[in-house]
Amino acid sequence: MTRTRIRDFHDDDLDGIIRLFEAAVPESATAPPLYPLSEVLAACQRNQAVVAVRDEEIVGAAVGRAAHGQGVLVFFHVLEAVRADPEQGTRAEAGLLDALERRLMPLGLGKLSMLIPAGTSACDGLVANGFETRSGLKYVERHLPVQRRELDRLKTVGGRILPRHLWDGVSGMQEEKDTLEDRLVVPLAEPDLADHFGVVPPRAVMLFGPPGTGKTTFAKAVASRLDWPFVEVFPSRLSGEPGGVAAGLRTTFEQINELEHAVVFIDEVEEIASKRGGEPPSPTQGVTNELLKQVGQFRDREGRLLICATNFVRALDAAFLRHGRFDYVIPIGLPDATAREAIWSRYIPEHTIAGVDLEVLVNASDGLTPADIEYAARRASQEALASSLRQQHVDISSRSDVLSTDDYLEALRATRATVSEETAREFGEDVETIARL
Ligand SMILES: Nc1ncnc2c1ncn2[C@@H]1O[C@H](COP(=O)(O)OP(=O)(O)O)[C@@H](O)[C@H]1O
Ligand SMILES: [Mg+2]
């Protein structure tokens, strides 16, 4: 067998490295390699690679990358045929590692390490050459939701990535949460699982309910839960576009269609999709028609979800709510006692809550929306702070004045219920006649 030589990488070796990379990925591998080919090639070109050559063919390579005083091997492989040779195999591995180390040494590295997928051969060679296996480690990774290229597109449409824990921040509302989880989140987050059971992931949904019940909150929570960017479309802001709102909608949706993933949200959609007809036809009719068309086209692509919200679902154009346009028409109603308790708990400071009679507050807030409860709780906090400031200054560590049940009840008396009994009754009717789950 001809001798194997070790030398520095040069640009002509790229093809050889690519072939070696392909040979190194075991056929059984289910996950993509930790360091993709692009990264390996980039490291090669930064002169941090050495190769083993036999008969003009690249039979092995060690590729490193240095940052912050540490060196990482992003690729280390010697062809099986060479490794199996008792004379040359170990020598090629040792030679490669030695040569790479000498290349990286001038960079002042304190350590050289490599992450090795289980079931590959690289480990033996490394251990034989002075590398120690560290036990008790776990490798974790998270793919960031948006790549750089996508960021520019997102900016164009005013989209953003929301914080990751919004879903947990929605207190109570368990029934609604369960519905959204089952119908939206799971099928979209796990399309393979959905497909297994023949569930078609939704493309567009309508949330309806009185103001302040949490429709916007839920739309954002769904985006956060899916780790998809949130893009809110404001039709009223499109009126300045050339061609008016209809043309503006078309352009906006064209831009949104470029995004890989997105939760698109249109709030108060009744403003542009109310019942059509009438003589003379309402001025928003062209806009409604355009929106209908856009929803239809939006449905053609995967990885996106349109959420529309309305306070007046009965005012919507019948064609708008038809099957085939919105997969679900989901009511978001007033919170029940359990939900109210969860919402109170969220807005009452933690060190105060033990001294507050939650049950009294829950009963006293029947008929209030989450937004009303939030308002009352914040008002009570404000009042307590103000009255405390009027008294003597006491150091925070020796303070004994805390918010009481009465403080909250007083704030409740000053809180007007957003939802009148009549609205609540109409909502009940809408749930019976319009909701579709
Ligand atoms: N389940 C909830 N838990 C805690 N706060 C909530 C909840 N739902 C809504 N809120 C609060 O109520 C306010 C109004 O909610 P929003 O989602 O804007 O209602 P809607 O869009 O239905 O009018 C927001 O400040 C939100 O933080
Ligand atoms: Mg809203």
TrEMBL record:
User: What is any Pfam family matched here?
Assistant: AAA
Boundaries of every N-acetyltransferase domain copy: 4-158
Return one GO MF term: ATP hydrolysis activity
| Keywords on record | ATP-binding, Nucleotide-binding
Q: Which SMART domains match?
A: AAA (SM00382)
Family membership noted in the UniProt record: Belongs to the AAA ATPase family.
What PANTHER family would the database entry show? 26S PROTEASOME REGULATORY SUBUNIT
From the Swiss-Prot or TrEMBL record, give the protein name. ATPase family associated with various cellular activities (AAA)
